[in-house]
Structure formats: structure tokens, C-alpha cells
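Section 3.1: Structural characterization of target chains.
Under the original work plan, the team committed to producing a structural model for every single-chain target entering the pipeline before any wet-lab resources were allocated. The record below documents one such target. The sequence was received from the expression subgroup and is listed exactly as submitted; it comprises 293 residues.
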Amino acid sequence: MPGAKLDGASVYELLSTEKVTHTAGVPTVWLMLLQHMAANNLKLPDLKMVICGGSAMPRSMIKAFLDMGSNVRHAWGMTEMSPIGSVAALKPPFQNATGDARLDVLQMQGYAPFAVEMKITDDAGKELPWDGKTFGRLKVSGPAVAKAYYRVDTNILDEDGFFDTGDVSTIDEDGYMRITDRSKDVIKSGGEWISSIDLENLAVGHPAVAEAAVIGVFHPKWDERPLLIVQLKQGQQATREEILKFMDGKIAKWWMPDDVAFVDGIPHTATGKILKTALRDQFKDYRFPNAAA
């Protein structure tokens, strides 16, 4: 419990001196911790488990913790769910998975525990398939899921008793759910959805990138296109072309950001999540250089 001091050095000192074995936090905290450890060649031999919530851990971050001997778990939920909705534990047939196959599972937010049901739907409420690729609005039901807000006389569940979480996700055939965006953050380009979280986590894998955020920016033809906003690591350099080349081939061509903007810092909420509203305000007058009017 480091209080207000969530910088890498302070978190490392607490984990190290108290010989912490299990810890939990948002990706921003673990990003600063790993950068501090890498810069100073530090270890955490007692750390056995890292739980992450709030937003998705980049694949490179998961691998960094696994390489230092720590297990990693995504956890997802909401206050309205009291609060657990899923945990990314390795259930059969994945418990013995290694390498990229293990990372593929650990990147997801996991499967629902007993008494929680999930489904994904389109905007019209039509249920979508569990194929790990189709993503839609994530809805949940169960005895611990709220059906109304305090002193608000409105039922917040749909006709089947499901609560709309406000998240956009996929669910695969094994029941593993993966958050791809908040519904307010998903980029709608030419009538199709693009996941800002997938683009952000891919960009952070570039060795010069400290943190990345993606927002949708107006485009005269496609309505919205992704703008990648990058904060570089201290002392590192990278060009727009180098970052886009790093991402090329790892995502669909039409998902590729139309431009990269470099900033000195990315704003966060009090809980460490990227503050997309501030970025949208900062770039509200931005126009893509090659977009025809």
C-alpha cells in the first residue's frame, strides 16, 4: 500500500523490503516498476504473482514478469458485479501451455466464475458468436449483478436480465473473454470497429516506447481513423515510420494508425488509467495530413 507514491522506485522499495509475494495494480504502475528495475538491474525474487486490472497489460509486460519468475493474472470486474467478473487463470487445456501459447491466454481477461454469465451482442442486442474474433458489447448477469442504482428508479438490465458493462469484448470457444475497448473508446471506421487497446498494447512492445494511447480522429471519408499517441522512453528515439513498421503485419492493414503523434507525457486518471477525454480535448483540432477534405 504505497499511498500516493506510485513511481517505480517507491513501488520497488515496498515490494522488495516487505518481501511481497502477491500484488495487484493497474498497468501504469507495473510499467513504471519494470522500467525502474530494467534501468537499475534489479530483481524481485520473492514476487510470485502479479494481478492486473483496470485495463489490459501489454503482451511485452506479461512476458517481462514471466521472464523474472512471476506468474501473471488479468482480473476484470465492476462495482456493479460485486465486483469480480472474470479471472485469467490457466484452466485445462491451457495449464501446461508455454511460450506464445501461454501469452495468448494470459493476455485475455479470463473466464467467468461460478454464478456469472456473459454474452456479447451487437448494437441492436443480437447475440454474437463465441469465436474469439467477433467483438461486441459485453453483457453480464448473475445473483450478485446490480439491477438498479441507488435512488434511481430505473431497471438497468435488458429483457433477458443482462447488464451492459460498457465494455467491448470477444469471447472464445473455451469461454475466455478479452476486453478490446470501452464502448465510448472504440474507433468506428467505415462502419467497422477498431480496438484502441490492441493498438496501444502492440505499440508499447516497441523498445523505444514508454506508453501509448490511441484515439479516434475525424476523417472525411471513414468517419474516424486511429491516431497513435506515443510517449518515448527517456533517452530513446523513434520515428513515425519506425513505429508503424514495427506494427506492420501484426494487425489488419485497415487497423493501422493513420498517423503518430509524439508527446512528453500521457495523462492518467487518479487510478492510473489513460485519460482519453483529456487526449481527445488536446487533439480536438487535429487533422490527418493525407486526409482529403
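The chain has three domains: 8-106, 117-182, 187-282.
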